[in-house]
Amino acid sequence: MSAGKERIFRALKDVVQKPGNAICADCQLPEPEWASTTLGIFICLKCSGIHRNIPDVSKIKSLLLDPWEDSQIQYMAQHGNETAKEKYEAFVPMYYYLPTYMDCQVLREQWIRSKYERKDFTEANKPLAYATGYREGFLWKRGRDNGQFLNRKFVLSEADGILKYFAKNDAKEPKAVIKVDNINATFQPTKIGNPNGLQITYLKDNSTRSIFVYHEEGKEIVDWFNAIRAVQFHYLKVAFPGASDYELKHKLTRNFLKEGYMEKTGPKQTEGFKKRWFTLDHRRLMYYKDPLWKPISSINDKPQTS
Ligand SMILES: [Zn+2]
Fold first, then answer.
1. How far apart are the C-alpha atoms of 103 and 46, rounded to whole Å?
2. What's the 304 CA to ligand 1 centre distance in angstroms?
3. CATH number for the domain formed by residue range(s) 3-117
4. What is the CA(163)–ligand 1 centre distance, in A?
5. Which terminal residue of the chain has fewer beta carbons within 10 Å of its beta carbon, N or C?
6. Each residue of 237-287: pLDDT tens digit?
């Protein structure tokens, strides 16, 4: 490495080591190796791929592979992740789901686009599609019997505290009415076989049901997801008036703690082991014949009475 190159590399390294710059500005992955020279932030490889698709607001450079000008390093030093956070995340609603590097592509992409492209969070009270307390639209929903996806009308209403969907477009009565306070929603792209696949689980007659939906547009499905969280947040505030916003945030939709196949035998223990799909969601362990099937059984951590 030439002396000039080495000096620049050292100067860049000093900036990277400043507080806030040691983790990706968008997903918190440690040791980001890329930067947006227009936004003045340090980001990881995966997030840099998303930034690359919004060239109007973000220009990408590798910290290790690309040549850097002194003026660009100065710009990065003057800005950096903490400054960008103050500007672009100033008014993120408490209920908005903040993705990390553990989350799927659609959540991370929409977070990045919301921040820098749409500038959703730079000013107070900006009208946001998911903050109105009412949402109506079509989602592709997996059919219970044949597994085909069908376009279904969904309605989310804060006033009624429900999410409902209709089996036929002209149907008067909804196929299901789900109370928002017992909904969980998690993105499950692999399981559903669509990058925008969302699993909605809810309690009905004391058993857990799941529906699997997606929308072709990433923004739409993430807006649905945050709209559900917004309505849930509103309900929690009413139900727990003494709780802080921070406490309530952790009662919103959550990712499954664990999910996967295990071998299971029956209660008599003389039956053969069968392969079953288990999910651990908060305090409820459920198992299924296969990941998209309805649960065979669900086990709570509440004391059993019999
Ligand atoms: Zn990242």
1. 11
2. 44
3. 1.10.220.150
4. 32
5. C
6. 998 888 899 888 888 877 765 666 666 666 666 667 677 766 666 556 666
